[in-house]
Amino acid sequence: MVARAQAEESLETDGRGDGVELGLNGKRALVTASSRGIGKACALEFAREGADVVICARGTDALAATRDAIAGETGRKVVAVTTDLSFGAQIEELIERTRSELGGLDILVTNAGGPPSGQFMDFDDEAWMKAVSLNLMSVVRLNRAAIPMMREAGGGAIVNLTSISVKEPIKGLVLSNSIRAGVVGLSKTLASELGPDGIRVNVVCPGYTATDRMTELMTARAEREGKSYDDIAAGFYGSVPLGTFGEPADIARMVAFLASDAANYVTGVTVQVDGGAVRGLL
Length: 282
Ligand code: NAD
What we know:
- By secondary structure, the protein is of the alpha/beta class.
- The protein contains nine helices and seven strands.
- It has a seven-stranded parallel beta sheet with strand order 3-2-1-4-5-6-7, with helices on both faces.
- Helix 2 crosses helix 9.
- The radius of gyration is 18 Å and the shape is globular.
- It binds nicotinamide-adenine-dinucleotide.
- Nicotinamide-adenine-dinucleotide binds near residues 36, 57 and 161.
């Protein structure tokens, strides 16, 4: 297969560093929802490895600051495109900007803001449809728009970010527990359909990761359960075998690996990066 042969060649010839060679140098990546948190860490990781990157988020100021920080540290091209991922038309504009700024696409990482926390009876149809738009349809639309560019490039890698909720439902997160499972079904299906095109599709599931989202979730749970924030945090820490939250960079390294030529025989997997939090066998 052409893409696999190319990947092997780039691993052999692109001799940067002494560790595992990722072969990301010169690649073109789109990482969505990336002004902060896990998405930002992924964009930074790709740029550090020599990729040019398009980032996006709803606002402009934080996004521009992130663009400047990553470009300043890495010297790579970093393009910021204000985008609300709940809307298909804005995703189309994002993809068009990606094509015009990077000239094509090798890597897509789909990330989005998380759905609100709460229990089943808390949410009406409108809340469900909002969460479907943001956490399932954005993945559908981004994958669909990226695939033609990857076919043009002779192959590519997609990493769809979800949550450990796809392996073990999380208390008080019914929207995430339900809707993100669809991303796993989609990704596994695409891995089969797109293998012949040299396009790999994998899923990364962050566990409890030290970001603003985690702080917001723990604050909401403390209010809901009438407990202190510290008690709630201690409960989360206690549930992780490695005894601490992950850092966004921990997730980003797995994403970069799966998107890289070093993982050129890996497709259709759903991998958690969670300090051991998921207790199931798979
Ligand atoms: P975060 O709140 O730190 O960052 C979220 C990013 O998404 C920001 O850049 C924000 O601007 C952007 N964003 C939000 N809504 C958007 C929209 N409609 N359109 C475009 N961009 C949007 O969150 P995080 O902790 O980095 O989490 C990222 C994703 O990973 C979320 O879906 C979250 O639920 C999921 N996740 C997080 C954890 C965790 O512990 N932090 C664990 C599992 C899954």
